[in-house]
Specification:
Blueprint: E1 16-20, H1 25-30, H2 32-41, E2 46-51, H3 56-59, E3 67-70, H4 87-96, E4 101-104, H5 113-117, E5 123-128, E6 140-144, H6 151-161, H7 177-186, H8 189-192, E7 197-201, H9 213-225, E8 229-232, H10 239-248, E9 254-255, H11 262-271, E10 274-278, H12 281-289, E11 293-296, H13 302-305, E12 313-317, H14 335-338, H15 342-347, E13 367-368
Parallel strand pairs: 1-2, 1-4, 2-3, 4-5, 5-6, 7-8, 7-10, 8-9, 10-11, 11-12
Antiparallel strand pairs: 12-13
Length: 372
């Protein structure tokens, strides 16, 4: 790690900060502890987030983010595949803002350090991997990118290196009373059902990260048979996945696919007995709202992305040599997903479900994530 003075000792006042974190919902939630620390270190500065267009709903409610700029995309960033013809105008606009500090909170810096430097801020803070370009020493706070550990701790390594005070490691997902009322209008059972409900979320952005749909259906049937209401969730583009689970279930579920927005989904999870999902944004919402969850991690980096609370949130995965997966669709039979059985998920739900050991004729094959 590059040795630098504490950020608060900068002789020139830092009043305008731009942060680059153009990643999906779960990634942005994992950045909230670092954003809190940044705000604590510069309490009088306005913080602008450069993020994906879909991040606006969350950033509007984060009290330490004052503005969001939608990122148009950049070569080599798979999450940002927008129209690159918009990039020159975007950079020109950011440069006119004359930010005092640009913070690269995106990753190792191999691709994005030159991009963030092009924001034209007076100073830059961020990560490097020891091989990539970094700004001149006098104009930066740069920290070596941690190759291991949880994403929350990796990002806090930057604010720690800047000498900024931590404000906890919890995730921020600020619900409002109107969200709960909107959920009650959408599905009155969220408030008045005599039976507890479990949210089952079978979607994920990449097919390689999805547990088999028939296994989600089997989990749903076991829950209904045990006296729980099953609520199926997902975005509108995930409707084919969720409807397939509903069709394969022998029992009736409440299907809310495509009907919830970010905040009604949060209100739904807030009241749920528990959540069953892939390693996706919903798992981080459950972590933020402190609702128990069972997360099936297919192909991802468990150590990096599992919830920090390993008692409330159980992560199951099957170890294979090709982790972490770099494919959108698995080319080799999806052993990482096939290796997690239905009964192993049910065991982790902390439910009274008789006969779960008979649900699968194959031997149980799972591992539980452990604290690094």
């Amino acid at each position: 790690m590059t040795t630098t003075p504490a950020a608060v000792a900068d002789p020139d006042p830092i009043e305008r900060i731009v942060v680059f974190r153009a990643l999906a919902l779960g990634d942005l939630l994992c950045a909230t502890p670092a954003l809190r620390a940044l705000h604590a270190g510069f309490p009088n500065a306005d913080i602008t987030l450069v993020g994906l267009p879909g991040s606006g709903a969350l950033t509007q409610r984060l009290p330490y983010v004052h503005e969001m700029l939608s990122f148009p995309g950049y070569p080599g960033l798979p999450e940002s595949t927008g129209d690159l013809r918009e990039l020159p105008d975007f950079l020109a606009h950011v440069q006119t803002r004359r930010f005092d500090l640009a913070v690269q909170l995106h990753g190792s810096g191999e691709i994005v350090n030159p991009l963030v430097a092009a924001f034209g801020a007076r100073r830059m803070a961020g990560f490097d991997d020891g091989r990539t370009w970094s700004p001149p020493q006098h104009a930066q706070w740069m920290v070596r990118w941690p190759e291991h550990g949880h994403e929350i701790e990796r990002l806090l390594a930057l604010t720690d290196g800047m000498g900024l005070p931590r404000k906890g490691t919890h995730l921020d997902f600020p619900l409002q009373p109107a969200d709960r009322e909107a959920l009650n209008q959408l599905w009155p059972g969220a408030q008045g059902s005599p039976k507890p409900y479990v949210c089952v979320h079978p979607g994920s952005q990449l097919p390689s990260r999805r547990w088999p749909l028939e296994r989600f259906a089997a989990v749903g049937d076991a829950l209904v048979a045990a006296g729980y209401t099953v609520v199926l969730t997902g975005t509108a583009p995930e409707a084919p996945l969720v409807n397939s689970v509903a069709h394969q279930m022998q029992h009736k579920a409440v299907n809310l696919v495509g009907l919830t927005d970010l905040w009604t989904l949060g209100a739904l999870i807030e009241k749920a007995h528990s959540v069953v999902c892939n390693d996706t944004g919903v798992s981080h919402i459950a972590a933020a709202l402190r609702r128990p969850s069972v997360v099936i991690n297919s192909g991802g980096e468990v150590e990096r992305w599992r919830p920090l609370d390993t008692e409330r949130h159980q992560v199951l995965w099957h170890d294979v040599p090709c982790r972490p997966c770099l494919y959108e669709v698995c080319p080799t039979g999806h052993a990482c997903a096939q290796g997690v059985e239905v009964d192993s998920v049910l065991r982790r739900l902390d439910l009274e479900i008789p006969g779960i050991f008979a649900l699968s004729s194959r031997p149980v094959s799972f591992q539980r994530a452990v604290h690094a």
